[in-house]
Design goal:
CATH class of the largest domain: Alpha Beta
Largest sheet: 4 strands, parallel
CATH superfamily of the largest domain: Nitrogenase molybdenum iron protein domain
Strand order of the largest sheet: 2-1-3-4
Structural class: alpha/beta
Number of strands: 8
Number of helices: 10
Shape: globular
Radius of gyration: 25 Å
CATH topology of the largest domain: Rossmann fold
CATH architecture of the largest domain: 3-Layer(aba) Sandwich
Strand content: 5-15%
Helix content: 40-55%
């Protein structure tokens, strides 16, 4: 068709109306535009369940890396510097954080997932490092993760107010799944005779799990909340005596931990060593613990099988 002044004007008017309509339909903060970074992989999974499809949550520490041994690389500092929201566990778990944030510079919203939770008080029977200052491993009790979800929900909504309804809805759905997980763990733990509900772990990490599900912390190979510490000969001897007296059946070791000390203790006490618990990192999608909920189910299955 031959263009005339009238057809040209009509095309321009229609084009302008279409562009105006598209502009009106686009929210000021497009979904996915927010740059969100979670420090630990289990934390990124929890946060992604809250964020849903609106925001992509990236993870700082690679899968399988022990956060206790982690030290940020220059590339990690750049990623933190580029983030708009940084999600941490909190409770002094990320001991490197203050210095790294200072090096990264800039401004970002910091979400401390454990905010509002109170560190547990160890029982008198627990052999602890004299420098014990609190246990940051709140997430190994799924009922604590409900607080994580609420903190992440509120933080994301503050950073992205237009996504508030999405975050509220996703948080409610995930909290329901956490409550189902809690009931499943209670059912599984009930299969363990009460006398056998004793935990000996590589380091102080299962305290909240033990408190909530009725276990006793008989001892830890490394009497510290950090896996980077090492026990003294006196502490090793005390743990051996504790296991012998209590009749604890197993020593539970996290994936990636050196089992040498646990093996020595097992030889002295007759307890068996159970490896491959996932506590600080989830796995790749084809692994045994591809997300937080599956991580907890995997760990509980190992614990129940060893203590029945």
């Amino acid at each position: 068709m031959k263009n005339t002044p009238y057809t040209t004007v009509a095309v321009l008017i229609i084009t302008s109306l279409l562009l105006a309509a598209c502009g009106a339909a686009t929210p000021p903060a497009a979904p996915g535009a927010l740059r969100v970074l979670a420090v630990e992989s289990f934390l990124a999974d929890i946060a992604q369940n809250v964020a849903g499809e609106r925001v992509k949550v990236d993870v700082l520490i690679p899968l399988g890396v022990d956060p206790h041994a982690y030290q940020p690389t220059p590339q990690d500092v750049v990623r933190i510097a580029q983030s708009q929201v940084l999600i941490i566990n909190g409770a002094n778990f990320e001991s490197w954080l203050d210095k790294t944030l200072e090096n990264a510079g800039g401004q970002r919203q910091l979400i401390s997932a454990s905010n509002g939770l109170v560190s547990r008080k160890p029982t008198a029977a627990e052999i602890l490092d004299p420098d014990h200052t609190g246990d940051p491993h709140f997430w190994l009790d799924p009922t604590n993760v409900i607080t994580y979800v609420k903190n992440i929900r509120d933080g994301l909504a503050q950073a992205d107010p237009q996504g508030t309804a999405v975050y509220d809805r996703n948080a409610e759905t995930y909290i329901a799944r956490l409550k189902e997980l809690d009931q499943w763990i209670i059912t599984q733990v009930s299969k363990i005779p009460a006398a056998n509900r004793q935990l000996v772990t590589n380091h102080e990490s299962f305290g909240y799990f033990a408190d909530h599900y009725g276990f006793r912390i008989t001892g830890t190979v490394i009497p510290s909340t950090s896996s980077e510490s090492s026990p003294s000969a006196r502490q090793m001897a005390a743990l051996i005596d504790q296991i012998r007296q209590s009749g604890a059946k197993a020593i539970f070791i996290e994936t990636g931990a050196n089992p040498q000390l646990a093996t020595q203790i097992a030889q002295e006490t007759g307890a068996k060593v159970v490896t491959d618990l996932y506590t600080h990192s989830i796995t790749a999608p084809d692994g045994a613990a591809p997300n937080y909920i599956e991580m907890m189910r995997h760990n509980v299955n190992l614990i129940v099988a060893a203590l029945q």
